[in-house]
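Why predict the complex rather than its parts? Because the way molecules touch one another can change local conformation, and only a joint prediction can capture that. The input here totals 600 residues.
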Amino acid sequence: MLLIKKITTAVLFCFLVSKAYATLTIDITQGVEGALPIAIVPFVWEGKDELPEDVTAVIRADLQRSGRFAPVADEDLVDRPTVGSQVNFQTWRVLNVDNLVVGKISLLKDGNYQVQFQLFDIYKATQLAGYSIKSSKKGLRRTAHRISDIIYESLMGVRGAFDTKIAYITVIQKGESKTKLYKLAVADSDGHNERIIYSSIQPILSPSWSPDGRHLAYVAYTRGRPELYIQNVKTRRTKRIASYQGLNNAPAWSPNGEKLALTLSKDGNPEIYILDVKSNKLTRVTRNYAIDTEPAWLPNGKGLVFTSDRGGGPQLYQVDLGRRGAKGKLKRLTYEGSYNARASVSPDGKKVVMVHRVDGAFHIGVLDLKTEHLTVLTDSNLDESPSFAPNGSMIIYATEYDDKGVLSAVSVDGRAKQRLSFQQGDVREPAWSPFKAR
Amino acid sequence: MRRLLELVLISTLAMSIAACSGIKKKDDDAEAAAEGTTTEASMLDDGSEASLEQRVIYFEFNSSVVKSEYQDVLAAHAEYIAGHPDLAVVLEGHADERGTREYNIALGERRAKAVQQLLTLQGVAQNQLQVISFGEERPVALGHDESAWSLNRRVELLYSGE
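Output of the joint prediction:
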């Protein structure tokens, strides 16, 4: 997939995040040949004052970032219809555009906004989707992401993942001192609306979302050593859930939300356990003198993929789970290369992404579980912490750029790439949230 | 002579303890201990006692094998710690930036436990030693090459308590 040449002159979006210090830049570092052309006519704003959020720009940026769409540039729009009845399909066919989005936004008497939009198939001259969404002023960005999701799903047949969140860790050096400030942050999937939910001068690591998107589990050294915490993202209430002797690390929430897979070394060396979140009951999964860590659940909840160096270097293994822990034989998944670690399983359970070393450099690789074929998706170095979008279309990961930790995303076929950089500090360990409940 | 050396050592320890327990938080433990090593080393003339001043053990990539060159150093520490049951030592394991964070935390722990095992085999009581791994979170050398990495793959012996 790396053969695909970089075709775009980097399209640059600069946004100001709500908090002035956190300027986020998204660079589309690699576009896609054959992305679906789509015309998005700026939604007409029927209010008097300035519209507080450029809804059309958000939708356009979302679709562009996905790598699946090539939005037509504003100046190339041949017509500016606002409702379906004004659309002249013949005009748009000339532009070689498959799909068209039109819409309008009006201010309601109660201070909320009404966002109305329609999506058309130009060649069939039919409407594919049309909704009217009521939104608060604060919710306009989210409404835009929801519209992007509807467009994505209508045209791709797969649910969009724009109206989702990412959690990540930022690390800032405090002035001249050696002290670092670690922050656990949650932001929209496009990096906007960053909120810090926990901060510490001790390391914070490995955020993992609960499947309902309400909680994060993570490792914090707040008391001088690694311990596991669960935090409610909204109320920020925090609970320590594992502080055994040794490691309390690498939490991974089970698909049904009842359990956490984790790494404990209380019995001598790092082993994978399953913790029942309600009863606190522990079930041991691995028994080996080697390092066993970084568990990731299969989406059906019936097994785990984890990192183990029982064969020498770190490789990925799969274990099936029964009532008493491991069931049946372990299966080694990776054979290519001497370093494969930190798995994330695709939502359909068919692929596993990992950190994969080639010639001393650490990239993101994806393994097709059926064909056992491994594809390297990235060409940067020190790539780590890959995490699947809930629709399986993109993988977000951390890498180094300009000597700084930044987040990047790559489409699962390796064709589209983007980089999210923040002005300050290192950003690392992204975790893509699950879908919000419909 | 032996008594004098012990006094020097104890005062060194006291200094690093003072450095640790002051305003500075745990972040600076490593630095405090490292400073102790360099400033006090010249005061000692006996080889085996000088070994005690070396409090960082370095490792190869993805390895937790204690290299033979550190045997004397660890033997000196073992003798000293075993001879002072009131002492407590934290063995802090670290890794370089390459590879995954959680694996590196496990690796740092394995390195610290390798040192712990060597010390206990030589008579140090288990309860005098505490293992903590920071993985790649606390590099002493920044930079993305072997010269930095080799300094970061380490176990630090941090003396505390009396």
